[in-house]
Amino acid sequence: MSATRHPSTANVFVKEQLAAGKEANSLIEEKSPYLLQHAFNPVQWLPWGDEAFQRAQQQDKPIFLSIGYSTCHWCHVMAHESFEDEEVAAFLNAHYIAIKVDREERPDIDQLYMTATQAMTGGGGWPMSVFLLPDRRPFYAGTYFPPRSAHGRPGFLDLLRQIHLLWQQERSRVTDHAEEITATLRSTAAAPAQTEPLSEELLHRCWQQAAQSFDSEFGGFGSAPKFPRPALFDFLLRYQARHKNEQAREMVLFSLKKMAGGGIYDQLGGGFHRYSVDRQWQVPHFEKMLSDQGQLASLYFEAFQVSHHPFFREIGSEILDYVLRDMTDPQGGFYSAEDADSASAQESSRHGEGLFYLWSEAEIIDLLGAHSAAICNFFFGVQQQGNVEADPLAEFSGQNILAVQRDLTATARTFGKTEEEVDKILARAKARLFVARRQRPRPHLDDKIITAWNGLMISAMAKGFKVTGQKRYLQGARASATFLEKNLLAGDDHTLLRRYREGEAHFQGQLDDYAFFVQGLLDLYSADFNGHWLELALAISRRQKELFFDEQEGAFFDSPLEAENILVRMRNEYDGAEPTGNAVAAMNLLRLARITANSEQQQEAAAILSFFAPGLMEQPFGRPALAAAYDLYQQNPSQIILAGNPEAADTKEMLALVNSLYLPTTLVLLADNGPGQRLLEQQLPFMKEMTALGNRATAYVCQDFSCKKPVQSVAELAALLPAPAPWSGA
User: Which CATH class name applies to 9-189?
Assistant: First the structure.
């Protein structure tokens, strides 16, 4: 499937503003689509850097730091209400140094000041609004502020005036508070005061905490707003595999079914929106993030391996096809995100969240005809008055989000048709609606390429190839890995950069860039067994240790040694929209240790787990990726070595069987007498003995490097491996 790029809205916007004679501020020199969105604000924004800090020192002004990202709905709202307001901008320019940061380019800055915001307010979010001393220490923070005070909420202009008075009249109070917050940040980043031995109890505790939070009616965890939390689902799949826990398996499969049927999933074009504002997965915030697509596609393919139900494979494939179609650069990298907001097809000046995805009943009838529309609308719950009731979408009366409200059986019974007939009608209806939707003004595309998020998508594409056999997914994984290697490796020492856009690679790579890319390379190696990917993973992992590892305390910092203008180097342990860099790094080290028989990598993984032990033992539910790494750490190595010609039918059949099974702790290697095997033989001498007997594909199933009798048929191999339990829930 070829990519069809829709132009970066940031570039179109800049050209339009310059053509209209608008005056730009310093952000016009930046590449970030988010910063370019603010390049024509009357606020005299500066990018994060020495110039801004020097001005603050020289002019004795506090810093107003605004952090967001280009597809953030409330960032757009605050920009329109406050940053485009001449009165607000005049006061801000007169009394502050204003700095804009794209959190996706600088997650280290975002993490640091989000921690400060949460410490000061008890919550956080974007846009993030933080006030700093000229030396970067924070003293006041919040998120979205309306332009003027209303409904008991402080207005942004009033806040600016109050802080200005404090700065003039009570400077010591401001600096004392900044020092208190900075001390809290340093304490947060430091090693835990107490130590606690890890035990397998943390795995059971994580499962129990997940079960207590599980929503048995709609799937997922907790109530509204509801986030997918792929890292937690990943842990639960591992837990059910090890402990034969059917309830954990059911929680994952049921949740994934509910999510894929909800409005959080794009029923026409594939791909998941960021999160649901309601408990039912019905009404999403409509932005689509590459990081979510990568994690969720991987998860759906693993759900197929667990259940062998084709529904999960289909959803995983739809996600990948969406990314290949709409989020892939011609050079091979994957774009960051699509916005929630877009213009109305009927009125280009009318912008709103979700307009690209919403439908009126009349539109659907007009496009499909009365009979097909009746079936489609029944299935998706489309109503004449609209089915969108949750804020902030209530203003769009008569609009509908497509979400599965009735199954095929109920729809077929209602219209007197077979399920096969209804399925075909729905497929044609979705295809027609999809084509019609592509004529609408598209949401903004953030076309920057982030190393970490590409790593997640490389993993997903590699898993997609293994499960489906579709070579376009393997080609997508290879193209992205090649792109990153060519454009985002800074030199021969395998130093990574964070972001690429329009020919420019920039910003120091963070821990998640290294860890997620190494994970992607290991998954790609498991798909095509090209030794180059393994060598690259080892080299980047070594560089990661040099830049991030704390030899004294153990564990990695999230930002590199000599990080650019960072007040405190943080170490995050909580899994949010993405797993923590330390958790993924620990998992990578354990995987590499089993490939290379390197005890040092095993010890480094143990040091990471030990560093986070107190929190991990107490509240593993918030740290499921670390819990998953500990689960792998506790288990003895197991291997499947397939000896044979990778292009021969018998080898392919054995690989297809292995790839169709959920084997999260099993290392699969290929012995083919090629360059890849020579690399493995240097690491694992026993590989020399793994040969194709009688020139036929031969499988060796091993535990702790002690192997069972080799087998040469798919049936014999299947008898040695755990079979998936069928699932009828879909």
Answer: alpha beta
Question: Crossing angle of helices 451-468/310-326, nearest 10°?
Answer: 140
Tokens representing 725 are 């339990």
- What does the alpha-carbon distance between residue 118 and residue 141 come to, in Å, rounded to a whole number? 9
Of 452, 443, 490, 444, the closest CA to residue 333 belongs to 452
- DSSP secondary-structure letter at 81? I
What residue type is 60 in one-letter code? D
For residue 86, list its beta bridge partners.
none
Cis omega before residue 392 (within 30°)? yes
How many helices (H) does the chain have, and how many strands (E)? 28, 19
pLDDT tier at 2, thresholds 50, 70, 90: very low
Q: Look at residue 347 in the predicted model and tell me its pLDDT.
A: 41
Span 658-700, pLDDT tens digits: 999 999 999 999 998 777 777 888 888 888 888 999 999 999 9
Structure pTM?
0.95
As given in the structure block, the two tokens for residue 687 are: 């590989």
| CA–CA separation, 324 and 318 (whole Å) | 10
Cross-strand bridge partners of residue 288:
338
> What are the residue boundaries of the structural domains of the chain, listed by start?
9-189, 357-439, 638-719
- Domain 9-189 and domain 638-719, same fold? Reply is yes
3-class SS letters over 38-56? CCCCCCCCEECCHHHHHHH
Structural contact between residues 660 and 652, judged by C-beta atoms closer than 8 angstroms? no
SS3 74: helix
Q: Letter for the amino acid at 464?
A: G
The answer to whether residues 533 and 524 touch, using CB atoms and an 8 Å cutoff, is: yes
In angstroms, the Cα distances linking 214 to 211, 249, 255, 513, 537 are 5, 12, 9, 31, 36
Query: Rounded to whole angstroms, how far apart are CA atoms 590 and 582?
Result: 12
Beta bridge partners of 400: 359
SS3 21: coil
Q: In this structure, are residues 14 and 340 in contact, taking their beta carbons and an 8 Å threshold? A: no
Tokens of 294: 């990568």
β-pairing, 97-102 with 46-47?
parallel
Instruction: Tell the burial category of 194 from Cβ atoms under 10 Å away from its Cβ (0-12, 13-18, 19+).
Output: exposed
For residue 538, give both structure tokens.
């080892």
Question: Which candidate, 448, 592, 570, places its Cα nearest to that of 512?
Answer: 570
**Separation CA 609–CA 380 (nearest Å):** 46
Q: In angstroms, rounded to a whole number, what is the distance separating the alpha carbons of residues 711 and 584?
A: 34
Sheet order of strands, 504-508 included: 449-450, 497-501, 504-508
Assign a CATH topology to domain 638-719: Glutaredoxin (3.40.30)
Question: How many of the other CB atoms lie within 10 Å of CB of 66?
Answer: 22
Residue 383 structure tokens: 């109503």
Q: What is the 3-state secondary structure (H, E, C) of 402-464?
A: CCCCCCHHHHHHHHCCCHHHHHHHHHHHHHHHHHHHCCCCCCCEECCEEHHHHHHHHHHHHHH
Question: Higher confidence at residue 472 or residue 10?
Answer: 472
pLDDT in tens, 320-332: 999 999 999 999 9
How many whole angstroms from its chain centre is CA 135? 32
At which residue do the structure tokens 């990598």 appear?
Answer: 601
CA distance readout (Å), 305 to 219, 299, 311, 655 = 20, 10, 11, 14
| Alpha-carbon distances, residue 7 vs 105, 243, 362, 441, 498 (angstroms) | 20, 49, 30, 11, 22
Rounded Cα gap, residues 500 and 510, in angstroms:
14
